[in-house]
Every structure is written in structure tokens, then in C-alpha cells.
Amino acid sequence: MATILDGKAHADRMLEVVRQGVEGRLAQGLRAPALAVVLVGDDPASQVYVRNKSAACAKVGITSLEHKLAADTPQADLDALIDQLNADSGVDGILVQLPLPQGLDSKRALHRISPAKDVDGFHPVNQGLLLEGLPGLRPCTPTACMSLLAHHGVALKGIRAVVLGRSEIVGKPMALMLLEQHATVTIAHSRTKDLAAVCREADLLVAAVGRPGLVEGSWIKPGAVVVDVGINRVEDEAQGALIFAAEPKKLETLRAKGGVLCGDVRFGEAMEVASAVTPVPGGVGPLTIAGLLSNTLVAANQKV
Ligand code: GUN
Fold first, then answer.
1. Is 98 in the pocket of ligand 1 (CB under 6 A)?
2. Which domains, ranges and CATH numbers included, belong to the chain?
3. DSSP per residue over 75-94, as a string?
4. pLDDT (tens digit, 9 = 90+) per residue, 165-221?
5. Model confidence over 226-260: pLDDT tens digits?
6. How far apart are CA 116 and CA 269, in angstroms?
7. Residue nearest to atom 3 of ligand 1 (CA)
8. Ligand 1 probe mutation, 94, 96, 169, 174, most atoms within 8 A of CB
9. Other CB atoms within 10 A of residue 76 CB
10. pLDDT at residue 304 greater than cutoff 80
């Protein structure tokens, strides 16, 4: 039976470090770090994310500044708000919540944020610094996953790591961070031939594709470490019966509540094969916000 890598517990450890960092700033007579969150439109999932971010900021003493814009905001108005936040010396970090409503160009918005305030680590300057292995603001989810692996003493040097997914938010930066730690890295994706065989070579498998239960137990090398970045909601009972064959309780919850959260990996099956697995929920999810607040503190301290 695999060990469960508890993301919530590790997020709490990371947040405690941030809280102490904020306290240190205040003790030196500096102001609390400030994070500006820009939410355009009324996507329900984004509203939940933004609320969770504000609550986490409050816990560690970071000032959270919310800017809500209507879904039909013209790009020029979003540009103007980003320019204003870039120029505001009272703002250390800027996050434009994704996805943006149709008609708005996310890349244009993300590229407009000052790299020094880009706490998401999505600006090409920060992505380029990561590519070169230089310090910069790095994407929150992969940074926090690396921190979780380090905390649990997962050795990366020389291992075979497979990153399933090639997004700029998780897959690509995660692959670069693993490479930096001397893993031999494969990026696999929806067009990869014989995905199962590629995954089976992995000593470390990171799944970040947003496909519920894609990774079956038979895709996992015995003793591998599995990091599941996917957060998906499954409502279909037939699909649930397949994905949760080794997790009867989860299937019961789906039937009782009409839906249940699940990762990209079949957790019950992974627990029987892997040496360690992150659960969903309670794995990578809580780590992302901890990574964001950590970046906000770094951005604030860089200006001193
Ligand atoms: N939407 C979902 N996850 C994220 C994230 O990490 N950053 C931003 N900006 N938007 C998101």
C-alpha cells in the first residue's frame, strides 16, 4: 500500500513559512506584502478560487486587493488596470484569474504584467529565467509540487520522470524543474503513442492533463511516486463505476451527491502499485495557493 502524500499538510507548512516572513517584514517596519487579484466576469469556479486566495492571504497577513471587472470589459480597460497596478508601489503581486471571458486575449494580459510582479510566473521573462535555470518568479503549482517531493525526500537525480501534460502552467515548467534536479524527463501528452507504456517507465509520474481517471493502475511502475495535478468533477455514474472500481466509497459519494472530485489518476488503483501518491482532493490543490503566497512574499522582498 502506497504512502499518501498529504498536500494540505505541506501547504500549511509552506504557509507558516510565509506567515513568518510577513511577520519579519512588519518587525522591520515594512508594510505587509500586497497581492492584487483581477477577476473578469462571473465564472463560478474562478469566484471560488479567488475567494480561497483571499482567505489564505488573510491567514498569513498578506493584503489581498480584489479588482472585479464585468465580463464585457474591453481589452483596453483590462490593459489600463494592469498598467495602473504595475505602477502602484503599494502592489507587490498581480494575478489575472484565468480563464478570461471570450473576447479577451489572456496572453496579451499576462504579457502586460510587470515580470517583477508576475506572481503566477507566466510572463515570458520569468519563463525564460526558468528555462535558463536562473532565479525568478516560477509557476506556483510545479514549484509547490517540487517542494512537496523535497519534503518527502523523493530522490530525483538520475530517475526517469514522466510529465503527462504540456501546459505552460504546469507540464512544461514542471519538466524544466525536474530536469534542473537532474531527472531524465519525458513530456507525454494526448498525441503520445502508447501512452500507457511511456508512463510505465516512470519512477516519478506527474499527471496534469485534466482527464478524470486517465491513468490506470496498470500504467504505473511498481514502487513509482505519483503526483496527480488534475482536479476534475465526475458526475456520470457509468464513468464513475470504471474510474472508482478500486474505490467503492468514492462511487457511493458520486451516487449520493450526484458528483465527486477526482484526479487524472485512478487513486484506488495507484495506491496498490505506487510507493507514494497525492490524493485528490487534498493533494496538489492546496499547494498552488501556498506557492502563490510564497511568490508574493518573494516579490515584495525583492523590492527592498
Ligand atoms: N485559474 C486556475 N488556476 C490558475 C492559476 O494558477 N493562475 C491563474 N491566474 N488563473 C488560474
1. yes
2. 30-114 (3.40.50.10860), 140-286 (3.40.50.720)
3. HHHHHHHHHHHHH-TT--EE
4. 999 999 999 999 999 999 999 999 999 999 999 999 999 999 999 999 999 999 999
5. 999 999 999 999 999 999 999 999 999 999 999 99
6. 43
7. 98
8. 169
9. 7
10. no
Cell representation of residue 81: 488596470
Residue 295 CB–ligand 1 contact under 6 Å: no
What atom in ligand 1 is closest to the CA of residue 169? 6
What's the pTM value of the predicted model, to 2 decimals? 0.96
Q: Is 92 a catalytic residue?
A: no
Q: Does any ligand 1 atom lie closer than 6 A to the CB of residue 143?
A: no
Asked about 97 being catalytic, the answer comes back as yes
95 CB under 6 A from ligand 1? yes
| Nearest Cα residue to atom 11 of ligand 1 | 98
Which residues, at least 6 apart from 155, have a Cβ–Cβ distance to it below 8 Å?
none
Q: Is 120 a catalytic residue?
A: yes
Dihedral class, residue 297 (left if φ above 0, else alpha if ψ from -120 to 50, else beta): alpha
For residues 43 and 62, give the distance between their C-alpha atoms in angstroms, rounded to a whole number: 25
Catalytic residue among 92, 97, 117, 172: 97
Per-position b or e across 254-288, b if 16+ CB within 10 A of its CB = beeeeebbbbbbbbbbbbebbbbbbbbebbbbbbb
